[in-house]
Design goal:
The protein contains 3 helices and 10 strands, in the order H-E-E-E-E-E-E-E-E-E-H-E-H. The protein is α+β, with helices and mostly antiparallel strands. The chain is elongated and about 105 Å long.
Length: 227
């Protein structure tokens, strides 16, 4: 009888141990499932967001309706929305024409070329407080034919037998009519261009890319040299 009683106690202890182990394993598996499930659901949500954004694996993105010059002021009339496969959408693509409002181009863009976020510069970037819109009529041949509205230029003074001086650095052309250019200049720049023009021939040098570092102003007016 004592042996049978001990056997029953042992069996009960073993059953309790098995139950504890089973519950523990179940808790571990359940926790792992929840963690994995959250990650999986998060990824699935992202995938759905992408599908919603592109609408059945296609996307509407902005491209140029016409060829445009570097620095040109953008607008909805100069661009259009086109639908392309989602996998062909370039990084930084623009999906709304309103994104172009108040923006200029950092580089020239060909007709039907996609416009990227990296191609845009705020119109306000060409103007700073205290600057005035100045016009200057250059001599024939002093302005490259490629310079147009929005082009970025240095204005230099020709120095015979020496290195040409940079009078104004990285000015944005607001308008051009033949050799008459307009741009925003601060007080010092206005004074420099006036003085340099009285000393000799000044001319424009165009930047190839808006991201190029601005040239150092090396011009010194004659009245400063005499001090």
């Amino acid at each position: 009888m004592a042996y049978i009683k001990k056997s029953k106690i042992f069996a009960l202890k073993r059953a309790a141990l098995i139950l504890i182990c089973t519950v523990g394993l179940a808790a571990i598996f359940f926790t792992a499932y929840l963690l994995y499930g959250n990650v999986f659901l998060g990824e699935a949500a992202d995938a759905v967001s992408i599908r919603d954004t592109y609408g059945e694996k296609t996307a509407m993105i902005v491209r140029a309706r016409i060829s445009m010059n570097q620095g040109e002021l953008l607008g909805a009339d100069k661009a259009e929305l086109v639908e392309i496969p989602a996998e062909l959408v370039p990084e930084g693509a623009i999906t709304n024409l309103s994104r172009l409002d108040g923006m200029r181009l950092k580089r020239g863009i060909a007709k039907k070329e996609f416009i990227n976020d990296m191609d845009l510069i705020a119109e306000s970037a060409v103007y700073e407080e205290g600057e005035r819109l100045i016009e200057h009529n250059f001599t024939e041949g002093a302005v490259p034919a490629s310079v147009a509205e929005g082009s970025i230029i240095d204005i230099k003074l020709f120095v015979k037998g020496g290195e040409d001086s940079v009078v104004v650095s990285k000015a944005v052309v607001i308008s051009r009519s033949d050799n008459l250019l307009s741009f925003y200049l601060d007080g010092r720049e206005q004074e420099y261009i006036k003085e340099a023009a009285s000393e000799g021939a000044i001319f424009a040098v165009q930047y190839i890319d808006a991201s190029q570092q601005a040239s150092e102003v090396t011009y010194t007016p004659l009245y400063d040299k005499s001090k």
